[in-house]
Write a structure and sequence with these properties.
The chain is α/β, with parallel strands linked by helices. The chain has 18 helices and 15 strands. Helix content is about 55%, strand content about 20%. The strands form three sheets. It has a six-stranded antiparallel sheet, covered by helices on one side. The longest helix is centred in the middle third of the chain and has 67 residues. The chain starts with 6 loop residues before the first strand and ends with a helix.
Amino acid sequence: MRGGITMLREIYIKNLVLIEELRMELQPGMNVFTGETGAGKSIIIDALGLLLGERMSSDLVRDAGQKAMVEGVFLLSEGEVKAFLEAEGLLDDEDEGQLIVRREISPQGRSSARINGRTVTVGQLKSLGEHLVDIHLQHDNQLLLNPRMYRYFVDTLVPEIEPVLQQVRRLYDRWQQSHQELEHILGREKERVQALDFLDYQIQEIEEVGLTPGEEEELVVQQQRMRDAEELRQGALEIHRLVYEAAQVGNHAAYDLVAAAVDRARALEKDAFFGPLAVSLENCLYELEDIGGKAADFASQLQFDAGELEEVESRLDVIARLKRKYGDTVEEILEFLEKARQEKSELADSELRAETLKAEVGELARLYREESARLTELRRQGGKVLTDLVHRELAQLGMPAVRFVVSVEPRETPGRDGRDQIMFLFSANPGEEPRLLSRVASGGEISRLILALKRALAEVYDVPTLIFDEIDVGVGGSALNAMARKLFELSCQHQVVLVTHSPQVASYSDCHYLLQKIMEDETTTTVVQRLGEEHKIEEIARMLAGKGYSRLSLEHAREMVSQAEDEKRKLGEDSIETLAKG
């Protein structure tokens, strides 16, 4: 995995503490920084921390007349980093598989951050940083020992966990959704009962009246007709007399006159003009006959009892009262009635829905508990796997008596990821009960435990670049040799960047940088030099014996590098063989 991985390719630092301007190209594998105390090695680590969202201070600015800047170029492969950038809208096709992160700080202390040229918040920068780089500092173990990561580490070690975990999440989401809906219904029970009572009253009030569409208009016409009944009756009778009753109008009733005209036209039908005229006059006669009959019938209908008008007006009053409450017309009142019936039905259904939900919530809770129990058992298996892996690594690091325990205990509150609380416990001495890591481990112990954990999780811990600042402090002898080998093994799955004072560790480097502090014009500046093979041997000799190292120290350094290369070659071959068997 030494090629084609996401990695930090280049870092550029300007105007930061002892660094005026510095650019470094890093490599896959194991990148080592060495130099005398105070040369500025830790400034490189601090700069990387700033690049990944750590807090900045104007005290870090070297020249108060200009900004300080840190820029990192990362090469990207497919994976979680790329997926995160795409989800955040920070990756374009033209980015061509690289990521550029920049952080600037003004002399006044104001900072800005950019990802691929886009301004982002420090929060976004920190979120990205968790996917890119894990920095191990003395007394600051960051991501690996963050309790929120423990479950993830255990889950990745057992492939069978993932489908069970997804099922637990689905069940939990459905359970919570149904539970919330049930709580909503039950929480509104009082309002629901009140609403049902009010709807019943409204529905009953409208239904009792028995309205029909168009009724009001008909009643208004009927009311007016009743009020004008005598006038209308006299008019209808007068029309009837004019059409039919010739004796009352001087023998000139309309019907009689038209009938005489028909007779005269028929008598003259020998001329073509009068035939059609006779037909037209006959039609008029029929019309007059119909008009007369209708007028007589209408007049006969205009006989009302005194109480009928009162009934019509009373009905109109009832309709007017309903209109004030439910609508401007009878049709709107009937629409209100239909809506009230529908709302009543929905409220009645909610009671049935509550009963259904109670059963559903109970069943989902049961299924969730069953799947969570399966998940717990699988996690205990994963915890055992991790415990065994870490113990093996610790034994190789000279800590065979150390106890590391992955505790999987039930927690009170269920969640999307199950009901488990996972803790990492540690005991450095025989007879001591394992306790939380943060409370019992010393700096040297933590360093080796961190390395053991990262080595055990190398294939599943998906942060591509691992940075160590003097992880070898407090470690010596054979344990230090073992640590050097473990760091190299880790670099087979990750890019490793480390600051060290240990010649044993430095001898395993793939890329070795020397940092030096120089004085010019009463100004102190840190410079960096990438070492070739011979200069690397000279630097290791200095680390072994100091500046005045002897020829013997130089030979010793050469032997260390040669042995490290042999060991690296063997470890690399073993890794290839292991992958082939896998």
